Amino acid sequence: MKSVAMFGYLRDGVGKVSTKLLRNEGKVPCVMYGPNEHIHFSMYSADFKLLVYTPNAYKVKLDIDGKIYRAILKDIQFHPVNDSILHADFLEIQDDKEVEMLIPVKLTGNSVGVRAGGKLALKSKKLLVRCLPPNLPDSIEINIDELNIGGVIKVGEVKVSNMVLLDSPNNPVVSVKVTRAVAEEAKASPAASKGAPAKAAPAKEEKKK
Q1: Buried b (16+ CB within 10 A) or exposed e, 116-130
Q2: Mean pLDDT calculated for residue range 197-203
Q3: 52 and 74 within one domain
Q4: Are residues 127 and 160 in the same domain?
């Protein structure tokens, strides 16, 4: 998995007054949870662009006042009205400690059902995995070549290595729905064949006298 560099600044206070001042300065209050300590810091809201407003997943090379940490974004809170970032939690990672993280789904191939007129529906854009940090993938690839109309690929059918999928095995990930045009065509086909006039039998040739 690729990493993105971000810069943080240690906080002098953690109360409501300090938090309000930070947000007025365009900063986001943050906490990084580590194996030995929790670090309270802040980051400029604009710096979250590459980490949050993207379909990709990244590790974070976090520089807090000159000290470098490796982390992942664990949780983020948004304002219910304007969607501004209110708070962010990071988790310091170690190569020998498993972590849980949402990984984006990437579809590959050409569905036979879509080619037949069905509509592709991605039910789960990300899947929750648990694995060691070195095994975190950029995405989870799912081949849809054999997915026909009405077909569904569930979490339990997704093949992965060096990690465990934590979503329910019965949760659908991707499917191909029947479109109205395909349904109407299927209804019309039997009716057309039933209403078609029978072919006349070929006339027999009269025997020459």
Answers
A1: eebbeeeebeebebe
A2: 51
A3: yes
A4: yes
Please check whether residue 202 lies inside any domain of the structure.
Answer: no
Residues forming beta bridges with residue 43, ordered by sequence position: 28
3-state secondary structure of 98: coil
User: What is the pTM assigned to this prediction?
Assistant: 0.80
Q: Which residue has the tokens 């710096």?
A: 47
DSSP E strand stretches across the chain: 3-10, 27-33, 38-44, 59-64, 67-78, 85-92, 99-108, 119-122, 126-131, 140-143, 152-154, 164-165, 172-177
Query: Is 208 part of a structural domain of the chain?
Result: no
List the Cα angle 167/170/151 in 5-degree steps. Answer: 120
Residue numbers of the domain that contains 60: 3-93
pLDDT tens figures, 152-192: 999 999 999 999 999 999 999 999 998 766 666 666 665 54
Q: In this structure, are 110 and 155 located in the same domain?
A: yes
Condensed to tens digits (0 to 9), the pLDDT of residues 51-72 reads 998 889 999 999 999 999 999 9
CATH of residue 162's domain is 2.170.120.20
Residue 66 lies in a domain: yes
CA distance 40 to 27: 13
What total of structural domains would you count in the chain? 2
Higher pLDDT residue, 196 or 130? 130
The pLDDT score that the predictor gives to residue 30 is 96
